[in-house]
Amino acid sequence: MDEVKFCSYCGKLTSSCYSYCPWCGKSLVHKSSVSDALNSSLNKMEKIQMEDRLHELEKLETCLDNLEEEIDAFLSKASS
């Protein structure tokens, strides 16, 4: 059975016989520990989740702004 290692760039498991990651093409010359690869992958995932949350908040903010404009228009017509 081949020894395995993790790509420190994409976090994928690779065979130790490879010099380059077959998924991302980065060099596998230096071996990374499982915890390093896991931390790197988790950090990337956390960044993506934060970006998604910010995008959702921006969409909600736009919806609230539109609702506020509609309420203001409604109230101005009702008071006329």
Core attributes:
rod-shaped; two-stranded antiparallel ribbon; 57% helix; 80 residues; mainly alpha
Give a short overview.
The chain has 80 residues and is mainly α.
Describe the protein in words.
This protein has 80 residues and is mainly alpha-helical. It has one domain. The protein contains one helix and two strands; from the N terminus they run ββα. The protein has one helix spanning 34-79, and strands at 4-6, 13-15. It has a two-stranded antiparallel ribbon with strand order 1-2. A hairpin with a 6-residue loop joins strand 1 and strand 2 (13-15). The protein is rod-shaped. The mean pLDDT is 87.
Strand fraction band?
A: 5-15%
The major β-sheet equals: 2 strands, antiparallel
Query: How many β-strand stretches?
Result: 2
Count of helical stretches: 1
Could you give the distance between the termini?
Answer: 82 Å
Question: Mean of the pLDDT scores?
Answer: 87
Rounded to the nearest angstrom, the radius of gyration is 25 Å
Helix content: 55-70%
Strand order of the largest sheet: 1-2
What structural category arises from helix and sheet content? Answer: mainly alpha
Outline type: rod-shaped
Unreliable stretches covering 5 or more consecutive residues: none
The tally of domains stands at 1
